[in-house]
Amino acid sequence: MNRRGALVGALSSLALAACGDRAGGKVDPRAYQAFFLWPGVKAPPWLKQAREVYVLAGEVRHRPNSPFVPLRAVPHVPGPALWLVVRVERLDWSEAMYREVLRMLALWQASGNRVTGLQIDFDAATRGLERYAQFLADLRRRLPGRWKLSITGLMDWSAGGDPQALAKVAGSIDEIVVQTYQGRRTIPGYEGYLASLRRLGMPYKVGLVERGDWREPAGLTSDPEFRGYVVFLLGR
């Protein structure tokens, strides 16, 4: 092979390698600006420079009549804007439950944090969106206007969700963070689900998992409803 042929071959190999890296890329959280921080995960030093952090504050567990369960002390974060996240396993909240969540929001803000709002982390089944929409409408009426309302959502909502139910959900929230992962791994075939995100009819972010597989689908960032990424931190 002559020198020109060798050079062309080398460049071709480099191009193929680059394509392979992109196709099998891993999520490096330091390349992003918004994050989920769950109890038990130590905040890395660079998190102080983040734009916003979704912090799991407590849970509403499945057991009937169980109280709100706090999972962390009130944070004192001078940098990023914070979302107070409540992990929810049931929707039949008592009046005391609502009062406690709103009290925590006020306490977090009074402690010097920049609190953007409340996020509900609830795995509503696609066929159960109508009931979830009713819960969110009631919560939105109770939530003071200075705070926004966010939810997490499953990728299947955009593909199989009833349009009327999705419209009711959209009427109560400010954003949805669509999860592309389960546990510590990216869900295979996420590209097909994300192709239908425009059906949601609401502002959305895409949730990624640290070190998970990820290749950005074509056209995602050009969607006017796309608001960026949120990386779920795993720590070590």
The assigned structural class equals alpha/beta
DSSP strand count = 11
Q: Note the run of SSEs as H and E.
A: HEEEEHEHEHHEEEHEE
Shape: globular
Largest sheet, described in full? Answer: 8 strands, parallel, barrel
Textual characterization of the structure:
By secondary structure, the chain is α/β, with parallel strands linked by helices. Helix content is 29%, strand content 25%. The chain has 6 helices and 11 strands. The strands form 2 sheets. Strands 1-2-4-5-6-7-10-11 form an 8-stranded parallel beta barrel. Strands 8-9 form a two-stranded antiparallel ribbon. Helix 3 (129-142) runs parallel beside helix 5. The longest helix is centred in the N-terminal third of the chain and has 21 residues, at 3-23. It is globular. It starts with a helix and ends with a strand. The model is unreliable at 1-23 (pLDDT under 50).
Briefly characterize the structure.
This protein is 29% helix and 25% strand.
Helix-strand layout with pairing:
Elements: H1 3-23, E1 34-37, E2 52-60, E3 69-70, E4 81-88, H2 95-110, E5 115-121, H3 129-142, E6 148-154, H4 156-160, H5 163-170, E7 175-179, E8 181-182, E9 185-186, H6 190-194, E10 204-209, E11 226-232
Parallel strand pairs: 1-2, 1-11, 2-4, 4-5, 5-6, 6-7, 7-10, 10-11
Antiparallel strand pairs: 2-3, 8-9
Kindly list the characteristics that best describe this protein.
globular; 8-stranded parallel barrel; disordered N terminus; two-stranded antiparallel ribbon; 236 residues; 11 strands; 6 helices; alpha/beta
